[in-house]
Amino acid sequence: MLVIFAVALVALILFIGLAVDAGTLYLTYGQLKRAVDAGAVAAANEFKRTEDISLADKLNLMEHAVEEQMRLHDIDPAHADVHVYICDADEDGLRDENLQTLAPQFYLRCPTSAEAPRKLIWVDADLEAPLYFLHMLGFENINLNTNAIAEAAPVDVVIVMDISESMASDTTAPGGYVYGDYNPNDPTTGCNSFDTCMPLKQAKTAATALINTLYEGYDRVAVVTFDTQAVSLAIDSKTGVPVHLTDSMANAAAEVNGIQLHDDPPYNLLPSTWIGRGSAPVDLFNPINPEDRDGDGQDLDAADMYPGGTCTPDDDLWDESLDPYGWGGVPCDRDGVDDVFDFNRDGVWDGAEGSSWAGSMSINSTCTGCGMREAANVLKESGRSNAVWVIVFLSDGIVNMSDTSTTRTDEDFPDNLYNGFCTGGIDDNIDTQGFWAYPWCVDRDPAVRVCIDDDSGTCPPGTTYQDMSTPGLINAYSTLDYALDMIDDAALTHSSNTGEPAGNDIAIYAIGLGDAGRDLFGTGPIGEQLLRYMAAVGDDGDRTTDPCAAPGTGSNDNCGQYYYAPDGNALLPIFEDIATRIYTRIAE
Q: DSSP assignment, residue 360?
């Protein structure tokens, strides 16, 4: 029995020793693997974010980043043999041939000259792991090896900037900003002429800083501006032809620096009687086109709205011979004459005004839905399948305009919506709501979302459905509803309604500037609420998982992928923070 026990004890001790050594090796390998993965990601970040130094210095920073991560994982780099490689260290545009020997697996992953370049980093580490039981048998350690390929993922970024005239509200020089009567293109006082539009200039500086963190030749960027409509500004670096996305960061920065404030029509040059006469008939004022009083897309209104009027080409805006509503006359809008604005500032609104305004007549110019639609189209049409799609969206106001049949001519948009989905001013709710209760075309009930899909089964959960033929439709579906739909169309990928169409995997960072965070009506800041919805959808594709809904998060707080900037001075650190959050990934 003693002999059998002695033999069994030796075998038992042997198995226990082997189990201890195997366990320590397993733990050491896991520790090494985590350190190498973390080091590869850190190296990729250095590869991407240090474009202003030489490639040799970048490689040194990558190696230091890997060593730092190994220390953080309790591995002494001095006891490990670590190698960091990139595909093209000699910068000749080809993958390095010596990688066939040094890292053959990595060499095969590197793109050939016929393929698009990629920011791949190979981290390989060998570590001598000590043995404890087997050490007594003469085996001191075992070499462990692991590796990781990280990729600073190519990024397709669309920067969307509000350029409505309110983006000059902080302008002080040379002439200062005049609400409702400001010409930014004036050669002596206009901020476009001197590049002094504030906070627009600060927004341009911050956007340029973001562009400078992107990697030339790998990443691509587009610039979209919006006011009464949205425009993509990108120029191809080789042909000079307008395109959606460019890989030339210099060209993209030049596009941003060339952005100018939109010149809104001078609201203060409208006659007060034109927007404030009585409560009937219902069509008092059209903010999208003040020349089109009844919203039918035509200039001439008096003959249809006020039968019996005697407007002549020499009349002022009012025909005092007809006064059915106690206004002291009726509007006298002449066909083909831009007479509703006193462009020549003579105090008389008559035929002498002529056609004095180039561009949109709309006094509203915050079409958030336009900007999101254009940005999403840029990525859908020319975004790369292997790239991370990102939208950075900046606005300083409440959405008060949608696309119209003039600015959006595709078959999905009704061709009779000359004013888009404007629910303010030109509707019959003015009487009950009070004419000045809400700014024109701002949603009167933002808590109620309306859906006008062809099939109610595709509507977002909790929305109120209205068929397109429903009377009063334009009064129900608003500029805010349109913006929400454009956000969903861009980036919503998860919905409790399985019939709701899915968007795309787009990360959206939303920035509310200044008045976007104002609570005008006692129901919370509507501009910020929309931008926070944008960030919630753009965070993970799900509208219901909103980091801004967390307890303790209040108005004008940063949360999730939403940022609030009280003024232009806060924009630069926000854009810099967004730059650090654009993704790096483990490729293998």
A: -
Instruction: Classify residue 405 by burial, with Cβ atoms within 10 Å: 0-12, 13-18, 19+.
Output: middle
Torsion of CA 363, 370, 204, 165, to 10 degrees: 0
Taking CA atoms, 212 is separated from 227, 375, 574, in Å, by 26, 20, 14
* DSSP summary character for residue 434: -
As a whole number of angstroms, the distance between CA 395 and CA 367 comes to 10
Q: What percent of the chain lies above the pLDDT cut of 70?
A: 82
The residues near 210 (Cβ < 8 Å, ≥ 6 apart) are 157, 159, 392, 575, 576, 578, 579
Q: Tell me the two tokens of residue 257.
A: 């620096």
Distance CA 30, CA 28 (A): 5
Contact (Cβ atoms closer than 8 angstroms) between residue 450 and residue 462: no
16-62 per-position pLDDT tens digit:
767 776 778 888 888 889 999 998 888 887 886 655 678 888 889 99
- Residue ranges of domains in the chain: 2-151, 161-264+365-401+441-524+537-583
pTM of the model: 0.79
Structure token pair of residue 126: 């060998």
State which of 232-236, 311-315, 495-499 shows the largest mean pLDDT. Answer: 495-499
Instruction: Work out the number of other CB atoms within 10 angstroms of the CB of residue 516.
Output: 28
Report the distance separating Cα 346 and Cα 356, nearest Å: 14
User: HSE (CB half, 13 Å, CA atoms) of 523?
Assistant: 12
The whole-number pLDDT of residue 432 equals: 40
545-556: average pLDDT: 90
In the CATH scheme, what is the code of domain 161-264+365-401+441-524+537-583? Answer: 3.40.50.410
User: At 2, which helix (H) or strand (E)?
Assistant: helix 2-49
Per residue in 560-588, pLDDT (tens digit) is 999 999 999 999 999 999 987 876 555 55
> In sequence order, which residues have a C-beta less than 8 Å from that of residue 27 and are 6 or more positions away?
none
Instruction: Count CA within 13 A, CB hemisphere, residue 549.
Output: 8
User: Most distant CA pair in the chain: distance in Å?
Assistant: 129
